[in-house]
TrEMBL record:
Family, as annotated: Belongs to the sterol desaturase family.
Protein name in the entry: aldehyde oxygenase (deformylating)
Catalysed reaction, written as an equation: a long-chain fatty aldehyde + 2 NADPH + O2 + H(+) = a long-chain alkane + formate + 2 NADP(+) + H2O
GO cellular component annotations of the record: endoplasmic reticulum membrane
Lineage summary: Eukaryota, Viridiplantae, Streptophyta, Embryophyta, Tracheophyta
Family matches, as InterPro entries: Fatty_acid_hydroxylase, Sterol_Desaturase_Related
Domain Fatty acid hydroxylase: residue ranges: 131-265
Organism whose genome encodes this protein: Canna indica (Indian-shot)
Membrane topology: Multi-pass membrane protein
Amino acid sequence: MLPYATVGEAAAALGRNLTAAEMAWFRYSAGMHDFWLYLHNLVFLLVVYTVAPLPLALVELLVPDAIHKYKVQPKVQVPVADVVKCYKNVVKIFIFAVGPLEFLSFHTSKWVGVRTGLPLPSAWEMAAQLTVYFMVEDYFGYWLHRALHSRWGYEHIHSVHHEFSAPFGFAAPYAHWAEVLILGLPAFLGPAIAPGHIVTFWLWFVLRHIEAVELHCGYDFPLTPTKLIPFYGGAEFHDYHHYVGRHTNNNFASVFTYCDYIYGTDKGYRYQKRQSSNSKGISTYSTCTLILAINS
């Protein structure tokens, strides 16, 4: 809740007039407790999860031939009933696992320094903090993901996420509730290291979730803007991880590829890329026997 009763008080405290964005923020948040502002994050996750995968899902359902050539695993078609079931399960996880986590983590967010007041952060401040968040989440998420591919971790937790060997947008957060919480920890670590405004906090989780949807979309479009980002993995990179399944020792990164390259967990993937350099997609990969031999 802002400690100002009027716009004049806020301007006096800042020593300048409020920007248009700050005026809008004042009107929206002046009488709202910080706790409710923090819980907006859960609402944003539900909305983004519903909306972000929807356009591609509709195109795939109504005019699949228009994009079929870009599908990474073109021989696999997930039934609509399975997509709907996946969506319902994820919404339940968000409400009954992520929801309580939001309640419990509120005081932690205040303790580390996530703020809700004025001034609003500049675009450069937000960009710098978001960069830190992506790098921190990617590094620690890599190691937690590798740990989940241990025998016990996979059999008891991570196997749920791998039920879909050919992922699609709605399956991005489809996982065991424990995995959602485990892999959610690195996402909170960045804001704890470089705390910023609640607006940046919201934007971080929105962008991270959109990225996860794109990573699991199942299509490798040549003009995707994310291809301009250095070391960005993308859908084809992560599709290989799902294609091989429980036995894979490749492509654990959630966003970038540098950890897999540094620690040698992309050798099988790069080998298959070389073998299929004149073809398109995972459908050109050789047999699972060869894949397992390369990964071992």
